[in-house]
């Protein structure tokens, strides 16, 4: 999963771009639900939020390191639940 750092300027550009609905407005900055973020695996070649963020504040979450296979598995789990 990816996460949003405190450099987020609350521009709201990333939230509608997430194919998994993993991004939401938090108390101070936007936040990513690591259970829903597949790093866009299954949907796109590149993380859509990273593509649109104007301040580049969305790195990989060191607390949620996942392989591409694991991300694909998460994608299938999320899609099946829809
Ligand atoms: Fe959503 Fe993709 Fe960003 Fe993860 S990387 S939060 S799935 S847009
Ligand atoms: Fe924050 Fe970047 Fe999302 Fe804008 S696009 S709300 S700056 S994380």
**CATH top level assignment:** Alpha Beta
Let me know the largest β-sheet. Answer: 2 strands, antiparallel
What is the end-to-end distance? 20 Å
Number of strands: 2
Task: Give the proportion of residues in helices.
Answer: 10-25%
Total helical segments: 2
Query: SSE string, helix = H, strand = E?
Result: EEHH
Residue stretches low in confidence (pLDDT < 50, at least 5 long) are none
Can you walk me through this structure?
The protein is an alpha+beta fold. It has a single domain (15-81), classed as Alpha-Beta Plaits, CATH 3.30.70. The protein contains 2 helices and 2 strands, in the order ββαα. Strands 1-2 form a two-stranded antiparallel sheet. β1 and β2 (30-32) form a beta hairpin. It is globular and about 30 Å long. The two termini are 20 Å apart. 21% of the residues are buried. The model has no long low-confidence stretch (mean pLDDT 97). Bound molecules: iron/sulfur cluster (SF4) (2 copies). One iron/sulfur cluster (SF4) is lined by residues 2, 17-18, 20, 22-23, 32, 37-40, 47-49.
What keywords describe this structure?
alpha+beta; two-stranded antiparallel sheet; 82 residues; Alpha-Beta Plaits; binds iron/sulfur cluster
């Amino acid at each position: 999963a990816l996460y949003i750092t405190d450099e987020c300027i609350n521009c709201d550009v990333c939230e509608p771009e997430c194919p998994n609905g993993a991004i939401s407005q938090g108390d101070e900055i936007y936040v990513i639900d690591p259970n829903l973020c597949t790093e866009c695996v299954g949907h796109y070649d590149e993380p859509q939020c990273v593509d649109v963020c104007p301040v580049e504040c969305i790195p990989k979450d060191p607390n949620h390191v996942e392989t591409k296979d694991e991300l694909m598995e998460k994608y299938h789990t999320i899609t099946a639940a829809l």
